[in-house]
Write a structure and sequence with these properties.
Elements: H1 2-30, H2 40-49, H3 54-60, E1 66-68, H4 69-74, H5 84-94, H6 101-113, H7 117-143, H8 146-157, H9 160-166, H10 172-192, H11 195-209, H12 215-229, H13 242-267, H14 269-275, H15 285-297, H16 314-341, H17 344-355, H18 359-368, H19 380-398, H20 403-427, H21 442-450, E2 455-460, H22 465-472, E3 481-485, E4 499-503, H23 507-515, E5 519-521, E6 530-534
Parallel strand pairs: 2-3, 2-4
Antiparallel strand pairs: 1-3, 4-6, 5-6
Helix pairs in contact: 1-7, 1-8, 1-20, 2-22, 5-6, 7-8, 7-9, 7-10, 8-19, 10-11, 10-12, 11-13, 12-13, 12-17, 15-16, 16-17, 16-19, 17-19, 19-20
Length: 535
């Protein structure tokens, strides 16, 4: 009788702990949503959603006149005269490497509920919340145990990486949900063989294609899993087994649906090459490996200090890296266990999802140089495969018949969930988190400008300067004025500004200013690109 009571209390305690972790994942996805730094990619997305093209901005803002922050903010808000089709057109012209489904849906969302920063991000929050039951459903479908399903859902709920992307007005939380949903539809189609499941898979795959082009490699991973889990097939014509034939039909239909956007991409390939040039910047092998470890680790925990050099030396540095090394070892062990003991489609789907989508980023980086694989967002499908494997192995160990083994794996589950919950709680209070990649410090620039009475900032439209001014617009005070000038031209300053600054001046702009009698001093303390103009 006493043992039954203890067992019942243990189940209640486990249920309570699970609900706490789940509630933490929900709460911290909404926490400080409108306060957190609205960075470059998000401001650019808001302009695309508003239907404004870069060519239009050149005509209205980048024309050598003084403007205030309100004009920059206005370009990031919706124009009732521009509907979702204008949004698709803007994406096609200026950002066609990103398919338009997310932007189209976000335009509808903001049109109904408002275009504030918090509301823009709420769409991603809801997609991130949808990923939690999808992770449960996929894990349950693959491994057939409620323990694996619950643990996969809880790991998704408190994952620092997924919470970070769920709080951004970017397509990655939505893409995550589509990867999970399409994988779940594929697993059900393979098990049940129903046409409606294959039809659903094709529709979800097409939606994933129209959300992110790297979904093509998710489809490849799915295809490898189907082929590997279908015994006895050959390449003889018209003799493909039903699962493989139906997979090919669904994937072909989804691919055909993407053809119109591929035509758009071909017609704007020069713009795409310019936008993706940053991928070719070589980090070096050591930095690349560190980035892989940090990004994989951030799926389960997030020690922000490791991403902010300089690091402490000696034993402190080793201690900080120890959790990330442990997580990498756990993931490799979990994948090995799935490879050795997994059965049928579940084994191959997890393994292929964890490995195949990484190869197009990792191999070019290692052979040609670059930092494609250092961008955590590009490897989201791989991280999902890793999470499924870890959830399966830890859940299986937690239900072991050997008490010692059971205690070890339950402690591991508790540590993983606690590490994630603590990480997302700490990150909720960080204004600018690590994945918001920028070389400058926008808050420091804003503080320097806001301390002046009537400052004027001169910026050329070269590089990313214009986009960074849009980012700063959310931090600047009303008196700050901005003047965009053509690269190499020398503005004649006749305004009544109290202080003059140049933002990230190129050599051509600096020479043009010098010809007008100006010299640059700085950079201003706490910044890299803000220089004071003096005579």
């Amino acid at each position: 009788m006493e043992s039954r009571r203890i067992a019942r209390l243990s189940r209640v305690a486990l249920l309570g702990a699970a609900l706490v972790f789940l509630a933490s994942g929900v709460y911290f996805r909404f926490a400080n949503l409108g306060w957190k730094f609205f960075w470059f990619d998000e401001t650019w997305n808001s302009m695309l959603v508003s239907g404004r093209s870069y060519e239009e901005l050149e005509a209205t803002l980048f024309n050598d006149r003084e403007i205030g922050r309100e004009e920059l903010l206005a370009c990031q808000r919706l124009d009732p005269a521009r509907g979702p089709l204008e949004t698709v057109r803007a994406v096609a012209i200026d950002d066609s490497q990103h398919p338009p489904l997310y932007y189209f849906l976000l335009r509808l969302w903001a049109g109904w509920l408002g275009d504030s920063v918090a509301m823009f991000r709420t769409f991603s929050v809801l997609a991130g919340l949808l990923a939690i039951p999808l992770a449960y459903g996929l894990s349950l479908e693959l491994f057939g145990t409620w323990r694996a399903g619950v643990l996969a859902a809880l790991l998704m709920a408190v994952s620092p990486l997924h919470v970070l992307y769920a709080q951004q007005a970017r397509p990655y939380a939505f893409w995550t949900a589509l990867i999970l949903a399409s994988s779940l539809a594929l697993a059900r189609a393979l098990r049940l063989g129903r046409r409606r499941d294959w039809l659903l898979y094709g529709v979800l795959l097409a939606a994933a294609f129209y959300t992110h082009l790297l979904s093509l490699f998710v489809a490849v991973a799915h295809g490898l899993a189907v082929a590997a889990s279908t015994p006895g097939w050959t390449l003889r014509p018209l003799r493909l087994p039903a699962p493989l034939a139906r997979y090919l039909a669904a994937t072909l239909a989804a691919g055909m649906a993407l053809v119109p956007w591929m035509v758009v991409m071909v017609s704007h390939q020069r713009v795409i090459r310019r936008k993706l040039a940053w991928m070719k910047q070589d980090l070096g092998l050591v930095a690349q490996v560190k980035a892989w470890a940090l990004d994989l680790g951030s799926v389960f925990l997030d020690a922000v200090q490791l991403r902010s050099p300089p690091l402490a030396g000696g034993a402190i540095r080793i201690l900080r890296w120890a959790p990330y090394v442990a997580i990498c070892i756990l993931v490799l062990y979990a994948l090995w266990v799935v490879a050795r003991r997994g059965a049928g489609p579940s084994r191959w789907l997890v393994l292929c999802l964890a490995v195949a989508p990484a190869l197009p980023a990792v191999v070019p980086d290692l052979v040609l140089g670059g930092k494609r694989s250092a961008a955590a967002r590009f490897l989201i499908p791989c991280y999902l495969g890793a999470q499924l494997a870890v959830a399966h192995v830890v859940a299986a160990g937690s239900g072991s018949g050997k008490p010692a083994v059971r205690r070890v794996w339950r402690a591991a589950a508790a540590l993983l969930l606690a590490a994630g919950a603590v990480s997302i709680a700490l990150n909720s209070r960080v204004f600018r988190t690590w994945e918001k990649e920028e070389g400058e410090n926008p808050p420091a620039i804003a503080r320097a400008l806001n301390e002046c009475e009537r400052p004027l900032v001169v910026a050329s439209t070269a590089g990313w300067n214009a986009g960074e001014m849009f980012t700063l617009s959310h931090l600047l005070g009303a008196p700050v004025r901005i003047r965009f000038v053509r690269e190499g031209s020398a503005p004649e300053i006749r305004s009544g500004a109290s202080d003059l600054f140049a933002y990230n001046p190129s050599r051509r702009l600096e020479a043009a200013l010098r010809a007008r009698g100006w010299r640059l001093e700085g950079p201003v303390a706490g910044t890299r690109f803000l220089w004071r103009m003096v005579r």
